[in-house]
Design brief:
alpha/beta, Rossmann fold, 3 domains, five-stranded parallel β-sheet, two-stranded antiparallel ribbon, 8 helices, 7 strands, elongated, binds ligand PQ2, binds nicotinamide-adenine-dinucleotide, porphyrin biosynthesis
């Protein structure tokens, strides 16, 4: 049987209760990303790095400066562990598993319910590369290459279509229009920075919106 591949999702963490065990080098990056995603983050660690400390001082996360204790996963919706002691990962994972809370650990892939891809962003566009745990270094290399392919025009196009999606009723006419904008002339013009001409195409498309359904 072949090795299963990891299944990618994009989580919406705004207002969700998330626990991060550890506050060292690896945890700092995780903490920053979780706060940026709007999670209600609690960090538990006896030794705390500068950026977690800064976020705590700014009131953007709750910091408990102590070792992890049984019961800490209670009430949490997602758990991340990044400590320098794999016994901590094992203990937290056992508790999380027993209570059905999903867990990621930086040091024991076998205990992960989900893994983290290498991520890069341009505006609303997210490039994420996973190697299903085979080669994090390769995930990072490929992510950088793929992100270079995302141009300012793509970001403009994503914002424009997002704006239209919020205003037009869902259905086949909207699908057709958005696909046409992205793949057709308007998209091409936006890519080349010719926004006024692109908007003229969008207006023309909107005038006939829904006529052929
Ligand atoms: C992508 C990225 C996302 C992130 O962490 O945000 C990520 N690792 C990154 C970098 C990186 N990690 C490591 C190196 C050294 C070179 C190498 O080993 O390749 C480098 C490269 C570097 O640092 O440049 C070492 C390492 N990583 C894991 C272990 C434990 C083990 O395998 O036993 C060890 C050994 C530790 C040791 O030996 O002590 C485990 C995991 N690392 C994962 C993700 C998950 C699988 C991702 C996938 O499927 O591809 C998984 C399974 C669990 C998880 O963490 O979710 C991030 C890139 C960030 C960026 O883009 O900049
Ligand atoms: N997944 C990845 O991408 C990746 C990459 C490199 C290394 N790693 C692994 O990640 C782990 C963490 O590395 P690091 O550089 O962040 O370590 P670090 O030494 O910088 O930080 C360790 C943190 O764990 C905390 N800690 C220790 N015992 C604890 C306990 N009982 N309860 C709560 N917190 C506790 C410490 O207080 C500290 O904040 C290592 O095992 C390393 O092998 C993972």
């Amino acid at each position: 049987m072949s090795t299963p591949v990891d299944f990618p999702v994009c989580l919406r963490l705004e207002g969700r209760r998330v626990l991060l065990v550890g506050a060292g080098t690896i945890a700092e990056e995780r903490g920053r990303q979780l706060v940026e995603a709007g999670a209600r983050l609690r960090v538990v660690a006896p030794v705390v790095g500068p950026s977690i400390r800064q976020l705590a001082d700014a009131g953007r996360l709750e910091l408990l400066e102590r070792a992890w204790r049984p019961g800490d996963t209670r009430g949490q919706e997602l758990v991340f562990v990044a400590t320098d002691d794999s016994r901590v990962s094992e203990a937290v994972a056992a508790e999380a598993r027993a209570s059905g809370v999903w867990l990621n650990t930086a040091d024991v892939p076998e205990l992960c319910d989900f893994t983290l891809p290498s991520v890069g962003r341009r505006g609303p566009i997210v490039v994420a590369v996973s190697t299903s745990g085979q080669s994090p270094a390769l995930a990072r290399l490929l992510r950088k290459r793929f992100l270079d392919q995302v141009l300012p025009g793509h970001v403009r196009l994503a914002r424009l279509t997002g704006w239209l999606r919020r205003r037009l009723p869902q259905g086949p006419a909207r699908m057709r229009l958005l696909k046409h904008l992205v793949e057709g002339e308007a998209g091409e013009l936006l890519m080349r920075g010719r926004s006024r001409e692109a908007w003229a195409r969008v207006r023309a498309a909107l005038e006939t919106f829904g006529e052929t359904t």
